[in-house]
């Protein structure tokens, strides 16, 4: 398995819990780093990056990501595999669902990395999202507020779809 790190920002603990769950599905082979304390050097030390955030207010990045996004933009991501996951509330904020994940995607889209793990918009109920390109989410969207019963199944299917990129 490639050298993997999961970077997350979490205000309420939900994104951290998802990061830990993803790591369990990866047989606890990944490093888990909170972006509050992470550095450019941390980003550059791994072959495969999982980047996770929640979306706040009207499509805003999680607070810790607000500062770390500049480090992400400064990092050399050339040749890396990057998988994104985002948490949002599709019921209350259906017009900005997982926009934070979209913001991270747009920050790395031209950095020479390969974004893996796109997910079809089918089976999701939302109005709009900055994380959708060509009818696919740029990563794994999760709604812990309204659909937490689907989280494990979605993580498992997502990771299976990317297995060839991780080995």
Task: Estimate the global geometry from the Cα principal axes.
Answer: globular
Which percent range fits the helix content?
A: 25-40%
**CA-atom Rg in angstroms:** 14 Å
Structural classification: alpha/beta
Which parts are unreliable, with pLDDT below 50 for 5 consecutive residues or more?
A: none
- Mind telling me the CATH class? Alpha Beta
The proportion of strand residues reads 15-25%
Element pattern in H and E: EHEHEEHEHEEEEEH
Mean pLDDT: 96
- So, CATH architecture? 3-Layer(aba) Sandwich
Tell me the major beta sheet. 7 strands, mixed
Helix/strand layout:
Layout: E1 4-8, H1 14-25, E2 31-34, H2 40-44, E3 48-56, E4 60-61, H3 63-74, E5 81-87, H4 99-108, E6 114-116, E7 119-120, E8 132-133, E9 136-137, E10 140-142, H5 151-166
Parallel strand pairs: 1-2, 1-3, 3-5, 5-6, 5-10
Antiparallel strand pairs: 3-4, 7-9, 8-9
Helix pairs in contact: 1-5
